[in-house]
Write a structure and sequence with these properties.
alpha+beta; BirA Bifunctional Protein, domain 2; Rossmann fold; 8-stranded mixed beta sheet; 5-stranded mixed beta sheet; 38% helix; binds adenosine-5'-triphosphate; binds magnesium ion
Length: 418
């Protein structure tokens, strides 16, 4: 029969890799809780309008990457390309501002973008993200970055550099926009098709274009930092002071504008020096106007998201504690198997990892399976052991064995495993 293949750019995370995912997600959850964040579980589908209004009509995501379809009633639905828009929608819809003076929320889950699949770029990929609502002070920007820094440290991730910039606010951005238009005015014909369009509608986007020549031109373009108003400058200086206080290393990247329209002031990326072209492992920034733009009360906010696949590729899983393969119960004959099943149930009830091969087989073949599963101990029950009310406990590492009465098994196994 013809086989059905998975979709291009959509991966399976198999055992062997999924242990690293579990480890990383656990560390992330622990650190988020340390910093006072709660988990929010957001839907995978939203009305398309949520994304076009927040991410921006002239961004790569909205122009060409969204998975959008007509629902049966004709409404336009999109598979979420990112998490912030949904978190903001939920924050407004459930009036979270009333429940807590400031909200610190994190989310974990798949995102969907129809990009060209390549290393570090998938059509379904996972993000770990967090958002803080209600604090405009630059110190929280530093706290957020310090949290990310701590997460990378705790995962022993090397070669990641934090780059920061400020892209100003609605007060100072118009002047910058004009300066950019002035700079690109006589270079329009050199820009890619998308950027030619963006020159009028959204010239800041040109700075984030991935096309080689646009990128080269952008390097010589005016810099946002030279156009900041005094409030934005104070905020940016405050952020740097607090990063020093928190001991978080960073570098300035004046060209960093990010690919979504909602950002204001602080923008940042954690860049993996070994990651090649797709080098941002985490990215984010402040978005002080988005809550209001999506119909909520004026609320300052900041957030980030981490690309899980890129984080996993930087993570050295040899440093990770391997989950134990536990106990393998080898039973010979039907009656012994029934007894083995009852023992297995008892072990599970006590939280002791244990498996058995329910199809039985010779002792030799069962021992081979135990070996393959890397079991620490094997419990062997044959007809003779069953009749005498004992099992053989074999230590697979030391190759020693002993006999144990049924009644002592659980107690003894707890001992050898702790
Ligand atoms: P890039 O510049 O790499 O396209 P972006 O600006 O589109 O990134 P964000 O939308 O800010 O990225 O997403 C945050 C993080 O999610 C990125 O830094 C990256 O680690 C990860 N990411 C984004 N798109 C993909 C993808 N298609 N596949 C895998 N990871 C991705
Ligand atoms: Mg992108």
């Amino acid at each position: 029969m013809k086989q059905v293949q998975g979709i291009k750019g959509v991966r399976d995370v198999l055992p062997g890799e999924s242990e690293a995912w579990r480890h990383i997600l656990q560390k992330a959850r622990d650190i988020f809780h340390t910093f006072g964040y709660s988990e929010i579980i957001i839907p995978v589908i939203e009305f398309t309008e949520l994304f076009t209004r927040s991410i921006g009509e002239t961004t790569d995501i909205v122009e060409k990457e969204m998975y959008t379809f007509d629902d049966r009633d004709g409404k336009k639905i999109t598979l979420r390309p990112e998490g912030t828009a949904s978190v903001v929608r939920a924050y407004i819809e459930h009036n979270l501002r009333e429940t807590s003076p400031f909200s610190k929320l994190y989310y974990i889950g798949p995102m969907f973008r129809r990009e060209r699949p390549q290393a570090g770029r998938y059509r379904q990929f996972y993000q770990i993200g967090a958002e803080v609502f209600g604090i405009g002070h630059s110190m929280i920007d530093a706290e957020v970055l310090s949290m990310l820094n701590l997460l990378f440290d705790s995962l022993n991730i090397k070669g990641v550099e934090l780059q920061i910039n400020s892209i100003g606010c609605p007060q100072c951005r118009p002047a910058f926009r004009e300066a950019l238009k002035g700079f690109f005015a006589d270079k329009i014909s050199e820009l890619c098709e998308n950027c030619q369009r963006r020159f009028e509608s959204n010239p800041l986007r040109i700075l984030d274009c991935k096309a080689t020549h646009c990128h080269e031109l952008a390097e010589k373009a005016p810099k946002t930092l030279d156009y900041l108003c005094s409030e934005c400058l104070t905020h940016f200086k405050g952020l740097q002071d607090s990063l020093k206080t928190a001991g978080v290393p960073y570098v300035l990247n004046e060209g960093l504008v990010r690919g979504l329209d909602y950002y204001t002031r602080t923008t940042f990326e954690f860049v993996g020096t070994s990651l090649g072209a797709q080098n941002a492992v985490a990215a984010g920034g402040r978005y002080d106007n988005l809550v209001e733009e999506l119909g909520g009360p004026a609320t300052p906010a900041i957030g980030f998201s981490i690309g899980m696949e890129r984080l996993v590729s930087l993570f050295d899983d040899s440093s990770m504690e391997r989950p134990s393969a536990g106990i393998f119960i080898a039973a010979l004959g039907e009656a012994a198997q029934e007894k083995a099943f009852s023992l297995l149930t008892q072990l599970h009830q006590q939280g002791i990892p244990a498996v058995m091969d329910h199809s039985g087989g010779s002792l030799k073949s069962q021992m081979r399976k135990a070996d393959k599963l890397n079991a620490e101990h094997v419990l062997i029950i044959g007809e003779d052991e069953l009749a005498r009310g004992v099992v053989i406990l074999r230590d697979m590492k030391n190759k020693t064995q002993e006999e144990l009465p049924f009644s002592e098994i659980a107690q003894r196994l707890k001992g050898v495993r702790s």
